[in-house]
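Quick log. Single chain, no ligands specified.
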Amino acid sequence: MYQASVVEDAPVGTLITTVAAVDADAGELGHITYSLVGSKAEFFDIGEHTGEIRVRNSSVLDREERMKISLEVVATDGAPSESQKRSAALVWTFLLS
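-> predicted structure:
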């Protein structure tokens, strides 16, 4: 689980946090890609290879509507789809005024 914070008037592109996963496999099989899932995922971007989570649409950053936002990050290794491994982590983002 990760915890981060962001001001409610943060501009588009603001970095919220960076997540990281490790795979012991060598070469392409060990490359990790990241994605976001969940009801608020469309308001944020994640660097597919960097794990950087950034604001895509700041309209969701309204502290009067919510105090925090939960995002689920999925890390996927580079193995072929039939043997691919995935892991998920929650990112709690607290809104600051």
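The CA atoms of residues 8 and 61 lie 5 Å apart.
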